[in-house]
Specification:
elongated, 3-stranded antiparallel sheet
């Protein structure tokens, strides 16, 4: 998998530039059930990796192993420690979080030397949603294309509009570019040059009906449903 380092803290920001890609009006879209996502793959901690919401962390107390634990960063960006209470984790590197934990536990433990490792993260995956058999996270690998990601999610349903697929491409720390791609050219005509390559954290969404207004579609059927985090801004696709 291509390892791309993500340094976004996903701070609060107003939804950016309006997206206007013309199309024909269609029937209302059915919201997919995205409540259950497949587990993320293991990855080593990096000193400059920024912890994200949903990451699974391993905390190791060198001289107090009874306090070792594995913990998931909540959607508010915090973790709950038995002796330290709520601690902000998202937006910090593992060493920075370790320092925060040491400060919290120094009141209760003698010499609480701590290490923090990122056991699992969604940052090396792409998300495929909408009219596919298994909506959710798909492991990223170098060269992964939109069609391959859709197939990894079980393939499109009979109700899918593969000629109206929404592609959210990560182009900055906290910014995506939204565009509409026609994957029918690939699936039906074998036109492989119409199948874009993906990067980690990109999003592919397969709708049920024709997209009339891209900005409204992205807000209602992607941003409000995905566990990708508040504060994302968009620019119009090409």
């Amino acid at each position: 998998m291509r390892q791309r380092r993500f340094r976004s803290g996903y701070r609060a920001a107003v939804l950016g530039a309006a997206l206007a890609i013309a199309g024909c009006a269609g029937t209302p879209l059915a919201s997919p059930d995205l409540s259950k996502l497949p587990p993320t793959s293991e990855r080593p901690a990096e000193t400059d990796y920024v912890i994200q919401r949903g990451d699974t962390l391993t905390l190791k107390f060198y001289f107090h192993p009874d306090n070792d634990q594995e913990i998931v960063v909540r959607q508010d960006g915090k973790i709950l420690l038995p002796l330290g209470g709520d601690v902000q984790a998202a937006g910090l590197t593992p060493p920075q979080l370790a320092d925060q934990i040491v400060e919290k536990y120094s009141k209760n433990l003698r010499d609480p030397k701590v290490s923090v490792a990122v056991k699992a993260s969604t940052q090396t995956e792409v998300f495929v949603g909408g009219e596919v058999a298994r909506p959710g996270n798909v492991p990223y690998r170098r060269g992964l294309t939109a069609v391959q990601a859709i197939m990894a999610a079980g393939g499109p349903k009979d109700t899918a509009r593969v000629d109206q697929v929404v592609f959210l491409q990560k182009i900055g720390e906290n910014q995506y570019q939204a565009s509409k791609i026609d994957l029918a050219k690939v699936l039906e005509n074998g036109q492989t040059d119409a199948d874009p390559s993906l990067g980690p954290q990109d999003v592919i969404f397969v709708p049920r009906s024709t997209i009339a207004k891209m900005n409204l579609f992205v807000q209602q059927y992607i941003i409000n449903l995905l566990p990708i985090r508040p504060g994302i801004s968009f620019v119009p696709g090409l």
